[in-house]
């Protein structure tokens, strides 16, 4: 039976990988393809589009329109391949040594392909499966909230949500949250020998980045020794920075972006409160000298963590399907699971492949993991039919 599902799933995976859904691009071609595929089986779909119509979430109910359904969720976007050394076309599935290479094979079009391949048999269940496909997960889990809100408002109450991020088919009941902030400093240009006549945006930005580095060090030093996460503490990193035009000009503009990843027990707003107060004070100070200068701190995204409480029944259900009796784990990466949980859905993370292969050149999912994902879908179908 597993082999019967793998063949169509591999064909679907080929199609999904062929769409370059890097987060900077539209995902509408992929969404249209999924709509047409599901329409073959008389499965209706609903789009939830973004503000400018360039991207869309998609959800579909497979089976009866009753309560107690199972949400299978995955994101359609992938990270860039720019600058990576690939041995094959990243937007085509290439099998080498029982590994399926391609951007998104692991993270997480493999899971979506398996769910779509199982759709015809999932139609026969006594409870439905709600397939949910999102956009812009890789840039801060931006797309899913609008879809989750609509699903919560319109669907007969689902029993649980399974987010198919790559976990080697292990049951995950907790992940860190992530908030991303952009900081822009505007200075006043002058000759670098006349520092009293201007303000270097770079120098102000360096002061702020130093404060963040000290904050990150403090989070490490005060880590909870009993935390299940690796690393155990909240982490803060500056991922991008730029500023200035020449060595002998006081920089007019400096810019950097940082992310903060917190376990469920840590409040990111509380962590960042001193930094934001410092930035506001500097903004006032700079404007007193030159009105056009200042400091702007903008939150770009804020995805909540997945807490371990409230997911016991969802965890038991997924364990029954996977046969996994090892202790439930947690992961340090962020995912959309916290957003589903925040909307009231008992949620776990479980999917084929390893996060260690995600975002890498020559990203892959092994045929063994793909097969285990197929087993999971078959057992889910059997479970829903027998109830």
What does this structure look like?
Helix content is 36%, strand content 22%. With 387 residues, the protein is of the alpha/beta class. The strands form four sheets. A six-stranded mixed sheet has the order 1-2-6-3-7-14. Strands 10-11-9-12 form a four-stranded antiparallel sheet, with helices on one face. The protein has a three-stranded antiparallel sheet with strand order 4-5-15.
Question: What's this entry about, in short?
Answer:
The chain has 387 residues and is an alpha/beta fold.
Q: Mind sketching the topology for me?
A:
Layout: H1 2-18, H2 28-39, E1 45-49, E2 56-62, E3 70-75, E4 94-96, E5 99-101, H3 105-122, E6 129-134, H4 144-154, E7 160-163, E8 172-175, E9 177-186, H5 201-221, E10 235-243, E11 253-262, H6 268-289, E12 294-303, H7 312-322, E13 329-331, H8 337-342, E14 347-349, E15 364-366, H9 367-386
Most strands sheet: 6 strands, mixed
CA radius of gyration: 23 Å
Helix percent reads 25-40%
How many β-strand stretches?
Answer: 15
């Amino acid at each position: 039976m597993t082999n019967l599902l793998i063949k169509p799933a591999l064909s679907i995976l080929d199609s999904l990988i062929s769409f370059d859904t890097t987060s900077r691009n539209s995902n509408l071609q992929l969404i249209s393809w999924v709509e047409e595929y599901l329409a073959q089986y008389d499965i209706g779909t609903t789009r939830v589009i973004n503000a400018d119509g360039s991207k869309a979430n998609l959800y579909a109910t497979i089976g009866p329109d009753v309560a107690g359904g199972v949400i299978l969720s995955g994101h359609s976007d992938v990270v860039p391949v720019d600058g990576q050394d690939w041995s094959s076309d990243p937007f085509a599935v290439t099998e080498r040594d029982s590994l399926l290479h391609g951007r998104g094979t692991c993270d997480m079009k493999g899971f979506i392909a398996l769910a779509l391949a199982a759709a015809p048999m999932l139609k026969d269940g006594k409870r439905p499966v709600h397939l949910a496909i999102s956009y812009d997960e890789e840039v801060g889990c931006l797309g899913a909230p609008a879809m989750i809100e609509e699903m919560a408002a319109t669907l007969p109450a689902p029993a649980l949500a399974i987010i198919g991020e790559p976990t080697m088919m292990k049951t995950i009941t907790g992940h860190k949250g992530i908030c991303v902030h952009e900081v822009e400093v505007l200075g006043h240009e002058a000759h670098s020998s006349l520092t009293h006549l201007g303000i270097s945006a770079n120098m102000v930005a360096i002061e702020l980045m130093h404060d963040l580095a000290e904050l990150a060090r403090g989070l490490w030093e005060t880590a909870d020794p009993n935390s299940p996460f690796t690393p155990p503490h909240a982490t803060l990193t500056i991922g991008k920075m730029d500023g200035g035009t020449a060595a002998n000009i006081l920089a007019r503009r400096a810019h950097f972006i940082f992310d903060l990843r917190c376990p469920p027990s840590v409040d990111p707003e509380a962590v960042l409160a001193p930094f934001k107060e410092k930035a506001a004070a500097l903004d006032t100070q700079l404007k007193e000298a030159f009105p056009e200068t200042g400091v702007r701190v903008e939150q770009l995204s804020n995805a909540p963590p997945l807490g371990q409480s409230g997911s016991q029944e969802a965890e038991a259900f997924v364990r029954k399907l996977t046969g996994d009796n090892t202790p439930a784990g947690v992961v340090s990466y962020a995912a959309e699971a916290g957003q589903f949980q925040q909307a009231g859905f008992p949620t776990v993370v479980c999917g084929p492949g390893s996060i260690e292969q995600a975002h890498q050149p020559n990203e892959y999912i092994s045929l063994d993991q793909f097969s285990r994902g197929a087993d999971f879908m078959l057992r889910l179908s059997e479970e829903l039919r027998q109830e």
